[in-house]
Amino acid sequence: MPRTGGAERRTTLVEEAIRQFGREGYGGASLDDIAGAVGVRKQTLLYYFQTKDALLEACLQAAGIRLAEVIAEALEGKEGYWDRAEAVIHSVFDLAAEWPEFPMFIREAGRLGPLAFERFADVLDPLRRRAVDFLRSGMDDGQVRKQDPAMLLFTLYTAVVGSLTEASVLNAVVGADKSRASLRRREKEVVAFVRAALEPVGER
Amino acid sequence: MPRTGGAERRTTLVEEAIRQFGREGYGGASLDDIAGAVGVRKQTLLYYFQTKDALLEACLQAAGIRLAEVIAEALEGKEGYWDRAEAVIHSVFDLAAEWPEFPMFIREAGRLGPLAFERFADVLDPLRRRAVDFLRSGMDDGQVRKQDPAMLLFTLYTAVVGSLTEASVLNAVVGADKSRASLRRREKEVVAFVRAALEPVGER
DNA sequence: AGGGTTGTCTACCGTCCGGTAGCGGCCGAT
DNA sequence: ATCGGCCGCTACCGGACGGTAGACAACCCT
């Protein structure tokens, strides 16, 4: 009933949609529930986004922008190969701590097929290129183990996103707990793992 | 119309359900489609599995059994830490090559919550324990970098399953192709990555 | 004051989906 | 030959969901 004003309502709806798409999956989340969670009727949601697919696209773009911001901010003023890699991982874990459904949503985006994922990835493309160049020059400098840099980036991605999204597996394998402390432990593990995988022979 | 005989029909339905649950997700796959794909009506499916949930449970158990078989077979006659780890990864990639939806289904199982995942993981629990012991003794022997073995197993899991399921990401990051050769390349990458992450200081 | 725009609502539609009811054919045992 | 269970079918139900139509209220501009 209260009129909140267009732009604000839009972003609230997108944020809630990301939460629910992440938790329930795109198919599993209903417009009714998303709208209800922000205190509005489905038809109001459909006023802002003419179709469920349009809502998804808005979510994908918003997620891409948000992630790009977070990573760019983490890179500011960081020097040295390892500092930068660690800062990126840390920033993503921070984002996941404050917004647990965010990585889930990204994984769901991948599941929805390449077209959907591109909407998200396009925003991040400059960062992707930067990361590949970063890894390649690290290899040239002898600070990173030599390998295909794009493939390495993919593997790093899967390790980070996986450790943020596979809660059930974590529970079954390790005996999880959902506390923030546990998240930090996982971050440390991923950082150690990645560091070990990155460092070249004789660097330790 | 043709009567195929109970047990055979059951397994055919389960296999098709795993395919569709993997591709479309649990919510996205319909009983009509699953039944239709094996040439039978939905009501016949419901004759074998009284409810969609029961079908899911059968799939989870079947998937657990299948994976346990594949891994156990891969471990037969293998000696040495690295041979065994590599053999397990290879066997999982082989399974994924012949049945691409299988890893997708496992990931979906994780998404459906701890209860569902346990149905799958319980079958694998002996192997899980074996893997943890294996990693721990490798650490004691100085053949594996020291760390929390359960956590390490989790990270290995995410790296392998991630690289098998995040096709859209692979496409966006590397410029994918879905050929079998590309799968082998990814396997080599994961093996190299894991090896680098496992080996202790000064082992190279 | 009043007309257009913006935002939210009620009411409804068509479709799809999981699940129920119940019929009928095939087949082996008696 | 017939009877009972196994197996597959047609027909249907109730509910959920995405989306449409249109009323109505608040606000803004002139």
Keywords:
homodimer
Biggest sheet descriptor of chain A = none
Compute the CA-based radius of gyration of chain A: 19 Å
Structural class of chain A comes to mainly alpha
Distance between the termini of chain A: 62 Å
Oligomer: homodimer
What is the string of helix and strand elements of chain A? HHHHHHHHHH
What general form of chain A does the structure show? globular
Query: Helical residue percent of chain A?
Result: over 70%
Helix count, DSSP H or I runs of 4 or more residues of chain A: 10
Low-confidence stretches of chain A: none
Biggest chain contact? A-B, 55 and 57 residues
> In what range is the share of β-strand residues of chain A?
under 5%
Number of strands of chain A: 0
Mean pLDDT of chain A: 92
Helix and strand arrangement:
The structure is a homodimer of 204-residue chains.
Chain A: H1 6-24, H2 31-37, H3 42-48, H4 52-75, H5 81-98, H6 101-111, H7 114-140, H8 149-165, H9 167-174, H10 180-198
Chain A binds a DNA duplex (30 and 30 nucleotides) through helix 3.
Give structural notes:
Two copies of one chain form a homodimer. The first copy, chain A, is mainly alpha-helical and 204 residues long. Helix content of chain A is 77%, strand content 0%. Chain A has ten helices and no strands. Chain A has helices spanning 6-24, 31-37, 42-48, 52-75, 81-98, 101-111, 114-140, 149-165, 167-174, 180-198. In chain A, α1 (6-24) packs across α2. The model of chain A has no long low-confidence stretch (mean pLDDT 92). At the A-B interface, α6, α7, α8, α9 and α10 of A face α6, α7, α8, α9 and α10 of B. Chain A binds a DNA duplex (30 and 30 nucleotides) through residues 1-6, 9, 30-32, 40-44, 46-48, 50-52.
